């Protein structure tokens, strides 16, 4: 598949949050205001692109030659944990306010299924190094798009009256459901029309 | 002891109350059989890792406990993944990448960190069972709603001559297809969560109402009456 195809697939058609349900915890947890949503989105893009590249290298250069592919779950999660630690240290140095805003969700990127998800999906789809990297960035952009749109909706929603049992999490899920409904317009036909 | 088990099912249900492990709950809940398979996998991993962590808690240094927990959990997930590929290949295909993603299911690491690393073996075991059963029941509820309304069927395991698919008359010809697709999962869990919130609120307000009535009648209100919750 071409790079453009990969990007369109992961940003729109198979959007990680709205179509594949990967990375819902930070999506619901950090989407309360736009600033931290944007910060979280970029942190996820960075971790995902690095993780998909690093896991590709470990899988193709170490696990496959040694015939120990069954260790992929264990090795991938350790690589991701180390990467997240690195990102955490970098953000703490560069932007302490962002570090504070992301709070508990930064170390939680390790257990963000989206990051392990893109690594496993890239291996399953037999992507090469460059394709894995692009897929990682594209999936991260899809995450950023969904979480930023969600946070702007929620900021407006805060000013509206919502029935009591629906306040907080339930209304967020229903909002996300309606967004997913809109994203259903992006399907395989879009890819065909654009790329022929 | 019993409360260690039952709290995972109702009071601290991982999906509806503490909102952990949502990704697999939404992604695989298209068919009832997927919910059963996923639930069994999660129960096995929870039990295995909580037992191991509870036994090893005195040997694992405090500073590297999270990576050690993750390695233990990942080992059990690998076992589940390989067993499922070997003995239930169609289930393994349905669940896809989500079997391996059990490793990042927040329920498991959360319980390991909050419970198994501090408590005795027997308590951890009951806690793991309760959380696993609570997760499975929640998943079954979501997938039953989505499959019955979204496809008009109930898919169970195929046994002998029974192919595992029950058709719901009237619904299977004209289902509300959207519920079986991605948006349906988000909508169903949103409404279910609102329902549970509402039930919780009704229970709380009934308790308050009873207390007020008692104090109005001149009876001294001594704490919340035990059997006040008739709502659930």
Oligomer: heterodimer
Proportion of strand residues of chain A:
under 5%
Which value, in Å, is the CA radius of gyration of chain B? 21 Å
Which bin fits the share of residues in helices of chain B?
Answer: 55-70%
Structure commentary:
The complex is a heterodimer of chains A (196) and B (232). Chain A has a domain of 109 residues. In chain A, helix 3 runs parallel beside helix 6. The two termini of chain A are 12 Å apart. The model of chain A has no long low-confidence stretch (mean pLDDT 86). The longest helix of chain A has 30 residues. Chain A is built from nine helices and no strands. Chain A is mainly α and 196 residues long. Chain B has one domain. Chain B contains eight helices and two strands. In chain B, strands 1-2 form a two-stranded antiparallel sheet. Chain B is flat. Chain B starts with a helix and ends in a 16-residue tail after the last helix. The C terminus of chain B is likely disordered. Classes of the chains: A mainly alpha (196), B mainly alpha (232). At the A-B interface, helix 2, helix 4, helix 6 and helix 8 of A face helix 2, helix 4 and helix 8 of B.
List the helices and strands and how they pair.
The complex is a heterodimer of chains A (196) and B (232).
Chain A: H1 3-13, H2 24-29, H3 34-63, H4 72-94, H5 96-102, H6 113-124, H7 129-157, H8 169-183, H9 188-195
Chain B: H1 2-6, H2 22-27, H3 32-56, H4 65-87, H5 89-95, H6 106-116, H7 121-150, E1 153-155, E2 165-167, H8 182-216
Antiparallel strand pairs in B: 1-2
Short description:
Chain A has 196 residues and is mainly alpha-helical.
